[in-house]
Write a structure and sequence with these properties.
5 helices; alpha/beta
C-alpha cells in the first residue's frame, strides 16, 4: 500500500484484543502515518491499544459510528479506512432490531463520510 507521508487511517472498532493487532501492524508498517481509532469501548479497552499508542501516532476517539458529526470529523483527509466494527452475537439475541440498525446506519455513515471527505 502506498500512502502519502502523513496519511490518516481511521480504524473503527479496533480496541478489542482480537482486533487491535491491526492498529499495531499499521503503526509498524506505516510509521509516519496517523492512525485514528474510533471505538465506543463497549467491549474493548484502551489498554489493548497501548503498544500502538506508545510506538506510533495513534489518536483514540471515543464515539459511535452512528454519530454522523463524529464520522465527518475523523474522516477528513483520509487515505484508507478499516471498518471492522461489530456487535456481539449475544446482543442480537435480546434485541433483533438494534444490531441491524447499528450495522446498517454505522456502515452507511462510514461510507457517506468517506465519500464526502474525498
Amino acid at each position: 500500500m502506498s500512502l502519502r507521508q502523513r496519511a490518516s487511517i481511521p480504524c473503527h472498532g479496533r480496541s478489542r484484543p482480537d482486533r487491535s493487532h491491526i492498529v499495531d501492524r499499521l503503526v509498524e508498517g506505516q510509521p509516519s502515518c496517523e492512525v485514528v481509532v474510533l471505538d465506543n469501548f463497549f467491549r474493548g479497552t484502551r489498554e489493548n491499544l497501548s503498544w500502538a499508542r506508545a510506538h506510533g501516532n495513534v489518536t483514540t476517539v471515543e464515539g459511535d459510528l452512528r454519530d454522523r458529526r463524529v464520522m465527518a470529523e475523523i474522516m477528513k483527509e483520509i487515505d484508507v479506512v478499516f471498518h471492522l466494527a461489530a456487535i456481539r452475537i449475544t446482543q442480537c439475541a435480546w434485541s433483533h432490531a438494534w444490531p441491524w440498525k447499528s450495522w446498517w446506519t454505522g456502515t452507511f455513515n462510514v461510507l457517506d463520510a468517506a465519500v464526502k471527505a474525498a
